[in-house]
Structure formats: structure tokens, C-alpha cells
Specification:
heterodimer, A: about 325 residues, alpha/beta, TIM Barrel, 13 helices, 7 strands, about 45% helix, globular, B: about 800 residues, 10-stranded mixed beta sheet, 6-stranded mixed beta sheet, 27 helices, 31 strands
Chain lengths: ~325, ~800
């Protein structure tokens, strides 16, 4: 579990191979056993078992930056707003801070920029020449209840517009009904529509009502070839939580043990502090190992968190607590 | 610090770095005591009266000296006990509210100094700062808060009780301050004063606590803390003015304490060793179980009396679970206990480390396969890697002996029944853990496991509101919860001074068969539902009130006791009978006794010399008593404790098992009924030795039981010489508890002889009870006929 991590920053021209779907296997779903109280205890105690200080903390915070999907998903998004975001993605941390940290020689960017379909061309143009992939939310995001053919078409159009990654949403009712075969078929169809683009399957865990169903939906999405499984759209009443994340990570581990394939993980929504980001990284290191501490296999769906990380990094460099206005907006 | 990695290197490696906790004011405090620590007696820190011997206390992670502890001699212990005795009248008369304020202040002070305590405890004991900071110290504060509440409510919730007096408390080194809290908080809440002896390896947090006592308003003498070694502990155990000893530690020392206090009238609560099973069923969340094992056996370096040290895993999932354990341990972190990112710290002392290693090596010799992770482990300091022993059979030393280290012994099982058999195949019975997502299997196991605590899908959970303690050789008494308070209280006027006992006439040859009794009626023993001839083939005469031979009863011997215990053991299915059925049978017995009331009255008149009205009154009282316990059978409920978790903590009153009852000579019918009925009502089986002088009311009961649906073997009677029969019962390792109502000498004997299997004993100490008064029946008896099992059941999806 503790092999050295892969390369340092994301290079979307050098993304890992797609996860290959496997045939639907109901035994993998039926065999799921998750005890919520035990999950919560693991999460609650881990933050006391592990911590990073000083330059370790700085390095880990920078790692977190490289795993951020810098995101704007608002009705009032405009091309200029998206370009500003892309600029931040390319230079997420002030150059002088990177110099002070001895990290200025590295192409340190966020993991991706994540937008609606309409903004994909703008983002692709803004990021041209930089190794920052563009991700598009799709399939009738966030509820995923538009006509099925339209959802497939939406994927195809985003890929055609240059999106490197597609964040699909699953039909929650299939989970609530326990219709795992149908869920598998749906995700598999989405994956086919993605073509070369990597697919992140959003489970909307806050709407699944059961930790065991979160685990089962994770397993089904991976069987259907999801490259990432993602907690939330950011629009649910409850978005990413550490307990839900732990369960999804363990399903990823089970899937890797059974198939040899590494599926990525993306918690999204509600992760606003550097401290919480550290907890996520530690959880991943403990449960999956260093392989997953890389934007190839881990992303934060979080934008506000970056501001806090920048302030913490400056504090490490200067010894003084920092202020928000000292760091460029995205 | 020579080659600190750069940010870029760490960015690539994503390794953890050091995260040491600062010593801060602990360093200054230790320096200020560089000339040696003192004893805390009567509110003052004092030097020992006599010798100059000291104990050097070390940081086990580094070997560095932390300080020198005073060694209290017998005269110092005496001074502490006398101080506590002087303080007792005022403290026990202090209002519950005033005591609550003191306990509340202690809780607050612990919280205010929580970091200090956490650092000092880690330094002194070697356990990780994470544990002291997140577990030990918060639980300490919680214990004082909770018991502040009990002080406030005691008068209302425990009416008719009083504190015991001066309590001697001896605590171990594995949870030094937490064990102090478990001892001191209930003692103070109930109005006792105390002398506490911390373990010699780990006395420092107790000494800092002593400094806080005055600030909290603890009056001088109420809390006394004496440091020292085994001799100090012995002086406390043997001190005549100590009313109770509360001990947590090894079964070996517990046994010594039981023997040393036998016959002294001291109350005793013992929380001893364990070899607790940790069961993983095939329907479990295996990742949850793995983390449970981390919290069970790799918590506090495995130096936990209730550590889940025996993993019993269902065969089909064993390979997968073991792989998961190995994976998990391969990124376990051992090292400096003061590092905030360490999973396991140092073993408390080199001698303990050597003992652990010797037992592991012996386990390997006996066939276990050893696995330890290849992880960094400090070369110096007292460390031991987390250890997995697989292929451990029940006969292996690693499955039987308490290793008290980070060593897990793995055994597989096939069926639930086999799981129960393996789990209960131990001399101990402290705790048990089980992981299953199937509530039917989980609760069935929880009911069948012999343990004082059962954790379902969690482990090593402690809370002040929940009783903790064991069964079998893991000891008796509970700490925490309402059940824990009883170990620091007694009922007012429960016992009466011994009455003039009618001396039993000298045993003589049974040739003088009494004349004029019509058809011969020689009572036999009653074993396994049958009237059986005594093994020795002898009978003994019973004399009437006038000293004339009245009848013959069997002269039971040790083999009769053996057979009766066999029968009682075989009848333990009785524990599973419904409470309603138990009640019905008791009412039926009452009905049949009522039908034969005249006959029993005549019997009492003849053997006791009472007048007919008194005799009739005793018969009627016996009938009423049967009704009482019929009523109690389905009403002596447990509790649902308010533990801080989403779930239930069920405190279940369980039968103890096979009980011996040695009946008093006074009230030969009512005393007899008053003892077996509660034992029976709670689902125990029993071997009863009736009054030696007046056994006939008991032997007359055979026919009543036979006609009242009492199941065979549940109640057994052996008549004969009390001392011989008592000795066999007290020494019998299959007898789980023994009630003895007789002489002071006999009581002392029972307590001393109980140490074979550490059976619970309840003795009259030569005193008696008013069998027809309020202390003749009720919950005092039911408490002695049950043991509380706390079942922790978190829920959620």
C-alpha cells in the first residue's frame, strides 16, 4: 500500500489509462457491508492519529492545490469569469511564495477547471498551452433527469468542444430503487459517450439515504468503467463528508484488489478549509496509499479552499498570519 | 534534524514528518520536584516517616529519569488511613450538593490542565499523546462530571444507603489517571474517604492530581495518595481500619487481596485480567473489524485488561481479514509517544517487554505463526512491534494467558455455536467484542458471551455512565453507572449482630433412630430433580428443640456436592427460561406450600421450639416471600445507559450461573426460602446446603418442588456437615458464586477459598438479618444473584 507516488503534477496529455468496465456482477453489490458507526469512528479518530507540521504541511498543502478541480457552476457564469478562473488554475499560488518554498521550478497548477458545457470552449482556449484539463459537468447536471438521449448527447457535445473530463450524474432513483443493473447500464452508456474523455461519476451521496447504498452505487459505477467516483454535485443538502468519502475509498480499494484497476476519487462540495483538505489527504494515504495522492487519482471539487491554503502557505513562509486580499482572486 | 527534507522532496514522497508535542510546563513541574516527590496525606505533601527508600520513575520511550517517588511504609499508610478516618464523619455528613460541587470542581480542574495531564501521562507511561489527549483525559473529566451528578442525586436515588468508610484503592499503570478517576470519583460521590496507591511505574499524574485537590475544595484527609511498591499496597490491604479495597490489576494480585482480606469484613471490588475474545462474523464490515482490532489490541500497546486479544474469525473470511490486518499494520507508526502522529508508543517497562516477547516465543513454539510488519521501530527505548499470531489453537499459551502487549492471537470458527464455545473457553470474562451486520447473530452472541462488557461493532468503549467490570477470574464489581455506585455503598442496618446460635449437638452415630415417628422418613439429598442417597451411605440425626433426635437426614460429602454442581451446571438452560415462567413456578411453589402450611407449621414447632403462632407466621412469611420473588422475576430490569454514542448501551441483569447457598440456622424455613427464591427467580441454578441444625424444613421442600414444576437440577440440596460441604462448594471451580450465612470463621473461610476461580462470595460474617423485616428480601438479594452485562450497540446506516 505504500509504494511511492506517481509523478508530481497533472499532465493531461499524460493521463492514466481509462478504467475498463467489467461485466455487471451482482455479488459485488450484494456483498457490501458497511457499518456507519465504525466508519464515523475511523474518521473521527484519524484526525487525531495523523498530522503534518512545518514543511510537511506546506508540501501537503501544495499537493492539495494540484488536486483541485477549480470550479464555477453558476447561472451567471460569463466567458470573462471563466477566463479569470483559468488564470488562477494556471497560477494558483503566488510565484514569490513558490520561490520561498523552493517549488517555483515546477509547473504547479490545479488539477483541472470544471465548468458547464457552455463554457467549455472558453476554458479550452484560456488553458491552451497549459497542462490543465477542462472538465464539464454533464448529463443534466445536477439532477440528471433530462431525457436520456439528451444526456448522452450532452456528453458528446462537451467532448467535441474539447472537454478532457466529463462529470456525469447518476439517476438517484435507480439507487433508491435498488435497481443496480439499470444503474450499471446507465453509467456504461455515459462512459461510451465519453469516448476518450475521462469520466467522473457523481453519486450525489447526500440523496442516497444510506451509507450501504453509497457503497453499492460506488461499486456499480466502477464496474461500469467510471474513471473517478465523485461524492456530490455541490448542490445537495449534504455534500462531501469524510465518512462518505471513507466508504467510497474502501470501495475503490476493493475494486482495485479484485480487478487491478485504480479508480480515482473526488469529494465535492463543502470542503472549504486547508485543515479539512489535509484530513482528506491523510484519509486517502491511510486507506489507499500514496498512489492516490496525485491528481490522476484524486481531485477536490472545491474552489474556496484554495484561498485558505494560500493563506496557510504564506503563514509558513513568513511566520505571520496572512490575509485574503493578499492572494489573487480566481 | 541533520537532513530535514525540503518541501519539494516531501511533495514527491508525501511522507509524514515529526509532530512532537511540547513538554511545556511539565518540564518545569518535574524540575521543581527534582528533590523527590512526597506523599499526599491529610491535605499535605509529606516525607515518609521512616525509610529513605525511593523509586525512580522513567520515561519508557527513552529510559530517561523523570523523578524519584517516595515509598510509603506501613506507618505512612497508617497515617493516611487515620487521616481518612478522621475526615470521614464530616465528609460523609456533607450534603450531596456540597460533594457535587467538589467533584464538579475536580472535573473542571482536570479540563483546565488537560494538556498538562496528557503530556505528563504520555511521558510517564509511554502511551501515545493522542490517546492521553483524546481518550484518557477526556474520560477522566467525564468521570468526575458524571459522579458530581451522582453526589447531587444520591440521597434521592439511593435511599437507605450509607458510605462504607475509608476505602483503600490500588490502581495499575496502564491507565494511571483514568483508573484514579474511576476509583476516586465514585468514592467521593458516595461520601467515602480514601487512600489511593498509584502504580509505582506511573504515579506522576496522581501526584499532580493531589496538588489540584485542595484547589477543588477537597477537605484534608478525604483524598490521600501514597506512592510505593507492593509492600505499600499490602499495608493498605491489610490495614484494619480500611472498610473496602477497590483494586484494578492482575488476577494474581487480586487473588492475594481476596485472601488477605478474607474474614476482615472489608468489601472488595476487583477488576482483574482478561483474555477477551474479538469475534468477526462473515457478515461483518471487515474494514470496520480491522479498525476495531487497531482499537482493541493495538491501543495502549495492548496493555489493556479488556483488550480484544483473541481474534475469532469465521473460517470463510479469515484469509481476507488477515490480509486486511496485515495491510493495515504495514503503515502503522510506532515511536516517540509524544509525537502526535504515532499509533503506538512504548511498553511501560523493560520487564514487561521481556514478558511479552517470552509469551510470543512460547506461542510460536506451540505452533503459532508469527507475523510482524516491516515498519520503522525505534532501536532504543522500550518498543514492541504489533504482532499477529495465526494458527493459534485453544491450547496455545497465546490463547490462554494474558500477554498484556500488542499481540493478537487468531483462531477460526465454523458456526456460531463454536464461536461461543471458543470465546467462553477461558478462565476470564472481562469483555468481548463482536462484529456483524446481522442483528440476530450479533444479539444472540452478546447474550451468550461470558463477559461483563460486550461491544458490538465497536470496541474498548468506556463511559462513566456505563458499568465496567468482569465475571469469572476477571473479578467482580462494576465501575461506572448506577451499578458502580453499589460498590461504594451499603444498606443502613442491613445486618444484625449474631444471635445466640443453638449449638449443633455433637454428631453421633445414627443408630439411635428416633422412636415413635411412624413410617421411616429419612430425607436424602435432592440432586438433579431426584431424591438421591448420599454417596457415603451415611445419615445424621437431626434434633428437635428439646435436644431429642427428631429424624435422620443424609450425611452429604464432597462427592454429593460434586454431583449436585454437575446437575446444577447441566440445568443452566434455566437462564433462558422466560421470566414469566420463573414467576409462575414460584407462585406454584407458594401455592403448594400454602396447601401444606399446617404440616410445615408443625415441623417448625417441633424443631425450633417456637409456639404455633410464631411457626405459622414463619410459614406465612415464606409464602409471601415466594410471592415477592415471583413478582420480582420479571421486574428486576436492567437499564439503558446514556453513553455518548448514537446507539444503545444495555445494562442487562444476568444470572451469575451456578450458585452455592449455605443457609442460616435461624429461621430455618424463612431463611432457606429467602435465599433460594431470589437465586431461582433470576435464572441461576443452585446447590443449597440447608441449616446443619435445622435442615428438615428444606428437605420437606423436595416434595413441594417436585409438584411445582421446578425443573430438574435447577435447585439441589445436600444435607450434612456445614463445614465439609461449604469447603467443597467454596473450592469448586464450576461454582460461580457462593452465599454463606453462618459463622465469622466460616465466612472467612469462604472468602479465602473463593480464590480458586475468583467466585463471587456474599457472607454474613457471623451476623444475621432480620428475615421477616425489610432486609429479609428485595433488591439487595437480587443484586447478589445477578451480574450486570453492559452491551454496547451503536446503530446507523
Amino acid at each position: 500500500m505504500s509504494q511511492p507516488s506517481l509523478s508530481i503534477t497533472t499532465l493531461h496529455s499524460n493521463q492514466p489509462p481509462r478504467v475498463q468496465p467489467i461485466p455487471f456482477d451482482s455479488a459485488l453489490v450484494d456483498g457490501v457491508r458497511v457499518n456507519l458507526s465504525a466508519v464515523e469512528r475511523r474518521v473521527a479518530t484519524l484526525s487525531g492519529r495523523r498530522t503534518v507540521k512545518k514543511q510537511w504541511q506546506a508540501a501537503w498543502l501544495l499537493k492539495a492545490v494540484t488536486c483541485i478541480d477549480l470550479t464555477t457552476l453558476a447561472g451567471d457564469d460569463t466567458p470573462d469569469r471563466v477566463r479569470r478562473l483559468c488564470a488562477k488554475a494556471v497560477q494558483p499560488v503566488r510565484r514569490d511564495l513558490l520561490e520561498a518554498l523552493g517549488m517555483d521550478k515546477r509547473p504547479l497548477t490545479t488539477g483541472a477547471v470544471c465548468v458547464y458545457h457552455a463554457m467549455v470552449p472558453t476554458a479550452v482556449a484560456a488553458l491552451a498551452g497549459h497542462n490543465v484539463p477542462v472538465a464539464a459537468v454533464s448529463t443534466g447536471f445536477p439532477a440528471g433527469l433530462s431525457p436520456f438521449p439528451l444526456r448522452l448527447e450532452e456528453i458528446r457535445q462537451s467532448v467535441a468542444a474539447g472537454a478532457d473530463e466529463i462529470d456525469i450524474v447518476i439517476s438517484r432513483h435507480l439507487v433508491l430503487e435498488g435497481n443496480w443493473q439499470a444503474l450499471y447500464d446507465e453509467v456504461l452508456a455515459f462512459r461510451d459517450a465519453c469516448g476518450p474523455a475521462h469520466m467522473k461519476a457523481i453519486l450525489a451521496t447526500g440523496e442516497l439515504g444510506s451509507i450501504n447504498k453509497v457503497a453499492k452505487a460506488s461499486m456499480v459505477a466502477m464496474m461500469a468503467g467510471a474513471d473517478f467516483i465523485k461524492t456530490s454535485t455541490g448542490m445537495e443538502a449534504t455534500n462531501a463528508t469524510l465518512p462518505v468519502s471513507l466508504v467510497m475509498l474502501r470501495m475503490i480499494r476493493d475494486f482495485a484488489e479484485r480487478t487491478g484497476q485504480q479508480v480515482g476519487f473526488k469529494p465535492a462540495g463543502g470542503i472549504t478549509s486547508a485543515k479539512l483538505a489535509m484530513h482528506y489527504l491523510m484519509l486517502i494515504k491511510e486507506e489507499l496509499g500514496n498512489d492516490w495522492l496525485s491528481p490522476h487519482l484524486f481531485r477536490f471539487g472545491a474552489s474556496r479552499m484554495l484561498g485558505d491554503i494560500e493563506r496557510q502557505l504564506e503563514h509558513f513562509v513568513t511566520g505571520r498570519y496572512s490575509a485574503a486580499n493578499r492572494h489573487p482572486l480566481g | 534534524m541533520s537532513s530535514m527534507p525540503s518541501v519539494a522532496q516531501i511533495f514527491d514522497s508525501m511522507e509524514y514528518g515529526p509532530a512532537p508535542e511540547e513538554l511545556g510546563p511539565v518540564r518545569d513541574w518535574l524540575a521543581s520536584h527534582a528533590d523527590g516527590f512526597r506523599l499526599f496525606i491529610d491535605g499535605q505533601f509529606v516525607a515518609p516517616l521512616g525509610g529513605t527508600e525511593t523509586i525512580v520513575t522513567h520515561n519508557p520511550a527513552t529510559g530517561e529519569t523523570l523523578g524519584r517517588l517516595a515509598v510509603a511504609g506501613a506507618d505512612d499508610v497508617d497515617a493516611a488511613v487515620q487521616a481518612a478516618a478522621r475526615a470521614f464523619p464530616a465528609w460523609s455528613a456533607t450534603s450531596g450538593h456540597a460533594r457535587a460541587r467538589v467533584l464538579y470542581a475536580l472535573a473542571r480542574l482536570v479540563q483546565k490542565h488537560s494538556r498538562f495531564f496528557a503530556v505528563l501521562e504520555s511521558l510517564d507511561n509511554g502511551k501515545p499523546i493522542r490517546e492521553t489527549r483524546d481518550i484518557d483525559i477526556p474520560l477522566v473529566a467525564r468521570h468526575f462530571y458524571h459522579h458530581a451528578g451522582w453526589a447531587q442525586l444520591l440521597a434521592r436515588e439511593m435511599p437507605g444507603t450509607e458510605p462504607l468508610g475509608v476505602v483503600g484503592q490500588i490502581i495499575p499503570w496502564n491507565f494511571p489517571l483514568l483508573m484514579l478517576a474511576w476509583k476516586i470519583a465514585p468514592a467521593l460521590a458516595t461520601g467515602n474517604t480514601l487512600v489511593l496507591k498509584p502504580a509505582d511505574y506511573t504515579s506522576l499524574t496522581a501526584l499532580f492530581f493531589a496538588e489540584l485537590c485542595a484547589q477543588a475544595g477537597v477537605p484534608p484527609g478525604v483524598v490521600n495518595i501514597v506512592t510505593g511498591g507492593a509492600a505499600t499496597g499490602s499495608a493498605l490491604v491489610e490495614h484494619p481500619d480500611v472498610a473496602k479495597i477497590a483494586f484494578t490489576g492482575s488476577t494474581r494480585v487480586g487473588r492475594y487481596i481476596r485472601e488477605a482480606t478474607a474474614g476482615s469484613g472489608k468489601a472488595l471490588s476487583l477488576e482483574l485480567g482478561g483474555k477477551s475474545p474479538f469475534l468477526v462474523l462473515e457478515d461483518a464490515d471487515l474494514d470496520a473489524a480491522v479498525e476495531g482490532l487497531i482499537d482493541a489490541i493495538w491501543f495502549n500497546q495492548g496493555q489493556v485488561c479488556c483488550a480484544g486479544s483473541r481474534l475469532l474469525v469465521e473460517e470463510g473470511i479469515a484469509p481476507r481479514l488477515i490480509e486486511k490486518i496485515k495491510t493495515r499494520l504495514s503503515h502503522f507508526r510506532i515511536g516517540n509517544p509524544l509525537d502526535k502522529a504515532i499509533d503506538m508508543g512504548a511498553i511501560v517497562a523493560p520487564v514487561q517487554r521481556e514478558r511479552i516477547d517470552a509469551l510470543v516465543q512460547q506461542g510460536v513454539v506451540e505452533g503459532a505463526e508469527l507475523w510482524q510488519p516491516d515498519i520503522p521501530c525505534p532501536d532504543d527505548g522500550c518498543f514492541y512491534r504489533p504482532t499477529l499470531l495465526t494458527n493459534v489453537h485453544p491450547s496455545n499459551v497465546a490463547a490462554r494467558e494474558e500477554i498484556f502487549g500488542p499481540v493478537l492471537a487468531v483462531t477460526t470458527f465454523r458456526t456460531l455455536k463454536e464461536a461461543v464455545d471458543l470465546a467462553n473457553n477461558s478462565r476470564y470474562g472481562l469483555a468481548a467484542t463482536l462484529y456483524s451486520e446481522n442483528i440476530n447473530r450479533a444479539l444472540e452472541l452478546a447474550a451468550k458471551l461470558k463477559a461483563g462488557v460486550v461491544w458490538i461493532n465497536t470496541t474498548n468503549q468506556f463511559d462513566a455512565a456505563c458499568g465496567f467490570g468482569g465475571v469469572r477470574e476477571s473479578g467482580y464489581g462494576r465501575e461506572g453507572g448506577r451499578e458502580g455506585l453499589w460498590d461504594y455503598l451499603r444498606l443502613k442496618d442491613e445486618w444484625l449482630p449474631a444471635t445466640e446460635q443453638r449449638p449443633a449437638p455433637p454428631a453421633q452415630a445414627a443408630s439411635a433412630r428416633p422412636a415413635g415417628l411412624g413410617i421411616d422418613r429419612t430425607a436424602k439429598n435432592f440432586i438433579g430433580g431426584k431424591q438421591t442417597r448420599p454417596d457415603g451411605g451415611n445419615s445424621r440425626p437431626v434434633y428437635d428443640a428439646g435436644g431429642q433426635p427428631a429424624e435422620l437426614v443424609g450425611e452429604g460429602n464432597r462427592k454429593d456436592i460434586r454431583d449436585a454442581v454437575e446437575a446444577a451446571f447441566a440445568a443452566q438452560g434455566w437462564a433462558g427460561a422466560t421470566a414469566h415462567l420463573r414467576a409462575q413456578i414460584l407462585y406454584y411453589v407458594a401455592e403448594n406450600l400454602d396447601a401444606r402450611a399446617d404440616e410445615f407449621t408443625r415441623r417448625l414447632v417441633r424443631i425450633s421450639g417456637h409456639g404455633a403462632r410464631d411457626a405459622r407466621r414463619e410459614v406465612d412469611a415464606s409464602i409471601e416471600r415466594l410471592f415477592s420473588y415471583g413478582a420480582w422475576a420479571d421486574k428486576y430490569d436492567g437499564q439503558v445507559h446514556q453513553a455518548p454514542l448514537r446507539g444503545l448501551t444495555l445494562a442487562v441483569n444476568e444470572p451469575i450461573g451456578v450458585m452455592g447457598i449455605v443457609c442460616p440456622d435461624d429461621a430455618p424455613l424463612l431463611g432457606f426460602v429467602s435465599l433460594w427464591a431470589p437465586v431461582f427467580a433470576m435464572g441461576n441454578t443452585a446447590v443449597i446446603v440447608p441449616s446443619e441444625a435445622n435442615p428438615l424444613p428444606a428437605t420437606d421442600f423436595y416434595q413441594i418442588w417436585e409438584t411445582s414444576d421446578v425443573p430438574a437440577g435447577v435447585l439441589n440440596i445436600v444435607t450434612g456437615g456445614r463445614d465439609t460441604l461449604t469447603k467443597t462448594l467454596a473450592e469448586h471451580d464450576q461454582v460461580d458464586a457462593l452465599w454463606y450465612f453462618g459463622s465469622a470463621d466460616g465466612s472467612a473461610f469462604v472468602e479465602k477459598a473463593s480464590t480458586g476461580n475468583m467466585k463471587r462470595s456474599w457472607v454474613s460474617g457471623g451476623r444475621t438479618r432480620d428475615w421477616s423485616g425489610p432486609h429479609g428480601e428485595g433488591t439487595a438479594f437480587l443484586r447478589q444473584a445477578t451480574q450486570v452485562k453492559n452491551i454496547w450497540l451503536p446503530y446507523g446506516d
